[in-house]
Amino acid sequence: MTTERWSQATVYPDMWADPEEDPREALSDPVGEKETLWNYLRHYRLTLEMKCQGLDAEQMARRSVPPSTMSLLGLVRHLAQVERGWFREVLSGQDDAGDLYGSGDADFDGAVADPAVVEEAWANWRDEVHHADAWMETLPEDGLGATATRRGDEIPVRDVLVHMVEEYARHVGHADLLRECIDGRVGQ
């Protein structure tokens, strides 16, 4: 299958969207460390949504390069589980939250080309993002130095948020390549 490189942008054709139509532009100018970290996290979450926009179940579940099980759908499922693990289990202390898709690589292995699976993945991801954002709303600006317990270790909240930004940044990079393989669309 040959793909054609394209973008919806008209002002900057190498970008995903023109700046005035990019929803991430509304996230600029954060004040303070908490707002800055949260802003980066929201930015990458929106980027993930943009990279998956307009794809059907088959495209969302399309694997990258064998033997890898990575797909855009797998990334959505994985990031829902990551949000759940850090915000529900570690930061909110909900030890009984459980895995969304099972253990190991179930989030990637179970990413099959079924519209119901895609719908469930997005619903889970949005639910976990909503929970995380509600938790962030309650965090005071000076709360980044507070600690949470994970597997017996004390972890500063700041480290968890930096890790979340890193996790999304890495996987949004994967999403760039996956999307380009699907239909040639590239951009920021």
Task: State the main characteristics.
single chain, 188 residues, mainly alpha, Four Helix Bundle (Hemerythrin (Met), subunit A), two-stranded antiparallel sheet, 6 helices
Description:
The protein has one domain: Four Helix Bundle (Hemerythrin (Met), subunit A) (Up-down Bundle). The protein is 53% helix and 4% strand. It contains 6 helices and 2 strands. InterPro entries: DinB/YfiT-like (IPR034660), MST-like (IPR007061). Pfam families: MST (PF04978).
* Oligomer classification: single chain
Largest sheet: 2 strands, antiparallel
Q: Provide the CATH topology.
A: Four Helix Bundle (Hemerythrin (Met), subunit A)
Strand order of the largest sheet: 1-2
The number of strands is 2
- The chain-level structural class is mainly alpha
Q: What is the CATH architecture term?
A: Up-down Bundle
Number of helices: 6
Q: SSE order in H/E notation?
A: HHHHHEEH
Radius of gyration: 17 Å
Q: pLDDT average, as an integer?
A: 87
**Could you tell me how far the N terminus lies from the C terminus, measured between alpha carbons in angstroms?**
24 Å
Count of discrete domains: 1
